[in-house]
């Protein structure tokens, strides 16, 4: 299946550059562009993209507000945040709001395409080592997390809790399977159950949840 992408950025050169790069990649099609968050919300509803490449700092409505509305809407679109700085507090807030990952604007064409595919599949955190570092940094700076909710975490089995901790540490399904000496398909099943039990959208939200409920603490 072709992955449908919407590019959201207030800079025309960025939009056009990403559009050319992605349209040249097999299995990816740019179906639209938007210049701010408000237009992005309208185009997500009209075009039904699979992935939204979302800039954070834009006029009219920023990417953080737009991400919240898109995630809360009746859409399966995944948001991939674009940023110039890898330690941007707005990016952490976007992850908390439901973005599936983030990518630096200076990423190569291959990294950009791989990022879109990863987010579209929902199988792994995007750039786990960088995402982990960002979550660690801003979980230190943000409001102290609340204790774990027994009604949520308490529903997880011991193995599911173990898998959740490893997700938060930035491990992929294959790496978790190798660590726990089980089949990767087993880990995929555990991840799906974790998301359903905790009412989370994807692995990125699961990682943020693990830090904010103190299942994992910043080093």
From TrEMBL:
GO terms for biological process: phosphorelay signal transduction system; regulation of DNA-templated transcription. It comes from the Bacteria. The modification 4-aspartylphosphate is found at residue 55. InterPro entries: CheY-like_superfamily, NreC/VraR/RcsB-like_REC, Sig_transdc_resp-reg_C-effctor, Sig_transdc_resp-reg_receiver, Tscrpt_reg_LuxR_C, WalR-like. The keyword Transcription regulation applies. Residues 4-120 form the Response regulatory domain. Pfam families: GerE (PF00196), Response_reg (PF00072). The keyword Transcription applies. GO terms for molecular function: DNA binding. Residues 149-214 form the HTH luxR-type domain. SUPFAM superfamilies: C-terminal effector domain of the bipartite response regulators, CheY-like. Keywords: DNA-binding, Phosphoprotein, Transcription, Transcription regulation. PROSITE patterns: HTH_LUXR_1, HTH_LUXR_2, RESPONSE_REGULATORY. PANTHER family: TRANSCRIPTIONAL REGULATORY PROTEIN NARL-RELATED (PTHR43214:SF24), TWO-COMPONENT RESPONSE REGULATOR (PTHR43214). This is LuxR family transcriptional regulator. It comes from Streptomyces roseus.
């Amino acid at each position: 299946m072709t992955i449908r992408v919407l590019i959201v950025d207030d800079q025309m050169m960025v939009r056009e550059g990403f559009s050319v790069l992605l349209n040249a990649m097999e299995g990816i099609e740019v179906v639209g562009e938007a210049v701010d968050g408000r237009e992005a919300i309208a185009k997500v509803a009209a075009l039904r993209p699979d992935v939204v490449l979302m800039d954070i700092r834009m006029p009219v409505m920023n990417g953080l507000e737009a991400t919240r509305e898109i995630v809360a809407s009746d859409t399966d679109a995944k948001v991939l945040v674009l940023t110039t700085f890898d330690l941007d507090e707005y990016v952490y807030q976007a992850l908390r709001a439901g973005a599936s990952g983030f990518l630096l604007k200076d990423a190569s064409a291959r990294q950009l395409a791989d990022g879109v595919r990863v987010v579209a599949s929902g199988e792994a955190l995007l750039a786990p080592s960088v995402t982990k570092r960002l979550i660690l940094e801003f979980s230190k700076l943000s409001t102290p997390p609340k204790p774990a909710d027994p009604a949520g975490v308490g529903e997880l089995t011991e193995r599911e809790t173990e898998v959740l901790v490893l997700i938060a540490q930035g491990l992929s399904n294959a790496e978790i399977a190798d660590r726990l000496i089980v089949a990767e398909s087993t880990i995929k099943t555990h991840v799906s159950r974790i998301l359903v039990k905790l009412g989370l959208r994807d692995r990125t939200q699961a990682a943020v949840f693990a830090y904010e409920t103190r299942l994992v603490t910043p080093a």
